[in-house]
Design a protein that fits this description.
about 15% helix, 5-stranded mixed β-sheet, mainly beta
Length: about 190
């Protein structure tokens, strides 16, 4: 008899945990840009700058599939703006020009190539506002920076972020705010009030 009661209690506890498995992340954690470098870091980077939310992702150079969504409860997501890869690259890591290589007697022996900025066409990425409350994205990224900005309107109560890389949701691959805080779970909720 005690085993049945214990088992029933365990099932109730597991049901409660399943319903509440999406943990909340404090809004104050999102203030300030996280520390990251294009091509040298891996994962998602989220922060809030004034009333604009910023979502970025980058890789170590391997081709990765980034997918996810942002959903607002009780309000709308507005002013969706995909970042300009070229402008973001100039800010984060500019390209390097080619340079001449000279031999021991000063003769030109070759040219060492530089690094051109990464240029990605916007047709490779699908970052769309599905409806007034939801932004969905599916992109392939390799050795560059990608992402989007948005604003929250209409008295939204909370935001729900779902962020995946190659079909996996790992909180360790998500950095939030100037202190590069990792959420305890992914997906996660941000209470706005």
């Amino acid at each position: 008899m005690k085993t049945r009661i214990w088992f029933a209690s365990l099932l109730v506890l597991l049901a409660v945990l399943a319903v509440t498995s999406v943990l909340a992340v404090d809004l104050a954690v999102f203030s300030g840009r996280p520390a990251f470098s294009e091509g040298d870091d891996f994962g998602y980077y989220l922060w809030k700058d004034g009333d604009t939310w910023k979502v970025r992702w980058t890789t170590f150079g391997g081709n990765r599939h980034f997918t996810g969504s942002v959903h607002a409860e009780g309000g709308e997501l507005d002013d969706l703006k995909r970042i300009d890869v070229d402008a973001e690259r100039r800010v984060v890591a500019p390209g390097r020009p080619a340079r001449v290589v000279r031999g021991p007697r000063g003769r030109v022996v070759g040219v060492k190539p530089g690094r051109a900025p990464v240029v990605a066409t916007k047709t490779e990425d699908h970052i769309t506002r599905e409806d007034a409350n939801t932004i969905r994205f599916s992109t392939r990224t390799d050795d560059d920076l990608d992402g989007f900005d948005f604003k929250v309107r209409g008295g939204a109560i909370r935001l729900r972020f779902v962020l995946q890389i190659d079909g996996r949701s790992r909180p360790v691959d998500v950095s939030i705010g100037r202190n590069n805080v990792h959420p305890a779970e992914n997906p996660f909720i941000v209470p706005l009030r």
